Amino acid sequence: MSHDLHESLRDNVRILGDSLGRTIADELGEGFVDRIETIRGLAKQGRQGEADGRRQLIDYLRGLPDSDLLPVTRAFNQFLNLANIAEQHYRARFRRVEDYKPGAQPVLGELLQRAQGEGHSPRKLVETLANMRVELVLTAHPTEVIRRTLIQKYDAIDDCLTAIESSTDYPERGARAQGRLEELISQAWHTDEIRHERPTPVDEAKWGFAVIENSLWQAVPDFHRDLDNLLLETAGERLPLDAAPLRFASWMGGDRDGNPNVTAEVTREVLLLGRWMAADLYHRDLEQLKIELSMWKANSALKAEVGEVAEPYRELLKRLLAKVEATRDWAKAQLDGRNYDGGPIIETRDQLYAPLLACYRSLCDVGLDTIANGVLLDTLRRVAVFGVTLTKLDLRQEASRHEQALEELTEGLGLGHYRDWSEAQRQAFLLDELASRRPLIPRRWECSAETREVLETFRVIASEHAEALGTYIISMAAQPSDVLAVALLMKEVGGNVTLPIAPLFETLDDLNRAGDVIDRLLALPGYRALAGDRQEVMIGYSDSAKDAGQLAAAWAQYRAQEALVEVCRQHGADLTLFHGRGGTVGRGGGPAHAAILSQPPGSVNGSLRVTEQGEMIRFKFGQPEIALRSMEIYTCAVLEASLLPPPTPEPAWREEMDRLAEIAHRAYVGVVREDPDFVPYFRSVTPEGALGRLPLGSRPAKRRQDGGVETLRAIPWIFAWTQTRLMLPAWLGSGEAFATRLEEEGGLEVLREMRNRWPFFGTYLDMLEMLLAKADVGIATYYENRLVDEPALEALGARLRERFGRLHEGVLQILDQQELLESTPLIRQAVEVRNPYIDPLHGLQAELLQRNRDADGAISADLSRALMVTMAGIAAGLRNTG
């Protein structure tokens, strides 16, 4: 790619920007548009190194009347969202979902050829793909600031760009598409971009289901069709009909960790919504199949099923349609609190799959393979992936809530205080009760409301088919007893349904002890009898980085995975690692392909679970073409990591990382935990205090409403620093680590060797490079100048910016580059294009924060809304760092 943005991307940014300008002019006049252009021009001058450019911009913004502040923030926010649409459109068109260096785009066909060249037979490739178990877990973590109604308009705008590009020979089509584009941009401009109320967990689940309906429902069969064509060329056979290399799970409505709004009743409602939506989508499929499968030739098995009728396929589909309609009616009645008195419903995947498979086999048996492998195969693929619930719903709860339930139970039964018992005593009690055939919980047990809610959740599990549910995740897990406690409660209340139980290790100490905990757990015969030879473990990225700093956390995550792989190998258990990656780099985000290939050898063995959070769901799965490419990327990465794993790190590299992590951790803690000025500085210089008013998600911003930074969730912690462009959580400590090593003889050579030969370290540096390029210490300085007036806090800010500068120099030295992002021009140009639109939002945000503080939080509704719009716009402009 040339140094400039691709011509089609630049053209689309211009088309959208011009249309937005006309829309604003229609409402507010050409004079207002001129003011916007003046602001943009000043921002551009400031970016071009003119000494007083940024000062002139700030002076101009501070001189705006209050009545202009909201429309100005809205204009720049809207442009940034339109720029994202143009970039998303470009990525879909040119198959660039993720940010890679030139030539590093993963292509599945090339990977299959390379695997064969490395000695893997065609049969091995098919078997590996058929047995692959990759689950993408959709979560509603509160970083998606854009309302769903606007997302729908943005998707329609993308369709208009496609129509305009394909209308070269049909100018009247182009004119119609341009007219529709103007209409949609006007609709978006006249729609409030900020929710007035927080979404409920059910709202979040509906948003997740909408992504499936609008995008994945089409992308999944398209993906399998492309994969089948590749395998037919490579191995001469298709993927087995029931194979689903990629499936989808969800936390929306199931994640109750720190979210009092997720109750057993909410979980039950979300499960019913999934059943209703699935039935509705399959109903549309079956109606289409009934139209298309008008053939009369059928095998004896199908004729025996439906009798001697003229159109056997339609007869079978008509019966299946009746059951699907009944299922939809049943789910609606349950949601409405009504009794259902209709016909039999579909409760399991096989009840839907078997009749369709009978049609498929019949068509193949009578020589109609082409028809069998058309829309019927697409529906079979959907059933294999989505089942009858669309996603598997995971459940997550904090370990302390299970501990509280058992404390109340043991005390109530006169058995003592569970909380006071040693780990050995707890294990002995839990294992005895797991083996016992008598019930432990009294029928009329009076317990606290918190414990009753825990038990009600397990009753929901008991009332569901196992295939509707995914994994039960225990956050803050620390000991084998935390897993055994869930197993016991599930046995006592959960009936015959036994879900996989995954402890979540998220703090630095937890990660360091993860291997030992799982070793002791798998050594318990009573647990193995229950869990069998599979073990799932979740690795937390957000909280470990907040706890220890990004570099120390990344190395601890790597070492924990290595230990878990070895422990499970010794115990003969199949390990599935569940990666709790956030959307942002500071929470483990970044390109999925690079991230998966940078994991330890053996940790991705055809099996992987990973969270897709908040706004990244829309960026990666919100449109069919983008979703198709994202699915290919995951498949490529897991296949490559399984068949062509990365090299084992050299012992010298491990020693190097141990030392780097230790230095980085010490530096990070020295600032965040030990510097008495840090918390006041954080509260003064970032919009953290105002974040609570932004209705970002159903979960509170803090685990506890009292306390300091340690109680703040990782997401608003990252979000707050991103707004000021200092991006501190993702780099603090790394500069000291690299500087120490670079000052020593041979240090640069070792770091460059690790960068070039070790995917883990290379990927870490790539993410750091992108983050440094999006950070801006000049903007961070402005926030400080406007919002901080204590000399001690100003001195801390100066020290932090000095640390950033040393890291910037060190990274360029290791990469042997003159400037950041030299080898990824698309990202660099995308940042440069957006900066003149983000810079005014930063200036306005700092001004509005100060006015809000001066007014003790009592600024007008319009100014308060303008402040929230600046947050949304900055997040939109910075994408995977926002």
| Overall SS class | mainly alpha
Helix content: 55-70%
Strand arrangement across the biggest beta sheet = 1-2-3-4-5-6-7-8
Distance between the termini: 26 Å
Which term fits the overall shape? globular
Calculate Rg over CA atoms.
28 Å
Number of DSSP helices?
Answer: 36
The pLDDT mean sits at 91
Quaternary structure annotation: single chain
Strand content: 5-15%
DSSP strand tally: 8
- Sheet having the most strands: 8 strands, parallel, barrel
Low-confidence stretches: none
Organism: Halomonas stenophila
Protein name: Phosphoenolpyruvate carboxylase
EC number: 4.1.1.31
GO molecular function: magnesium ion binding; phosphoenolpyruvate carboxylase activity
Topology (SSEs and partners):
Layout: H1 7-28, H2 30-47, H3 53-62, H4 66-93, H5 108-117, H6 122-131, E1 133-139, H7 148-165, H8 171-189, H9 201-234, E2 246-250, H10 264-292, H11 300-306, H12 312-336, H13 349-365, H14 369-386, E3 392-398, H15 399-412, H16 423-435, H17 449-463, E4 469-475, H18 480-493, E5 501-505, H19 508-522, H20 525-531, E6 534-540, H21 542-548, H22 550-571, E7 574-580, H23 592-597, E8 607-613, H24 615-621, H25 624-643, H26 651-672, H27 678-685, H28 688-691, H29 714-723, H30 734-742, H31 747-757, H32 759-774, H33 777-787, H34 791-815, H35 825-854, H36 861-878
Parallel strand pairs: 1-2, 1-8, 2-3, 3-4, 4-5, 5-6, 6-7, 7-8
